Fold this protein.
Amino acid sequence: MCEVCAIFGAGEHWSDFARQRDDRFPFEDILHYRAERRRRIAMLNALVGPLGLVCEDWDGEALALTDARGRTKIAPTLGDVWPIAESLSGRGIDPLSEDFIAPRREAPAHG
């Protein structure tokens, strides 16, 4: 199945529940969701940037990871980011490992 078709029906990941879900103020809900999504993507870029990857929003529904050669893969949910980052970077990644987190924690924030 191609990555575009795989997106449909993927459902929401728990990390996407930044939506306020207040039907009385749908515009505020959209703005809040988009701001929270931008914040999460900035954090992901701080994590995957040292691997030579860039993470971008893909139509507000998924994440697109791109390597320095221009190869892009779509991650439907946050949980899909790590195996895709491994695939594109050619490196094993344990996002909970102190070896992975520590150098990124000490790096200056960009933004």
In short: Helices lie at 3-7, 26-48, 78-89, 98-106.
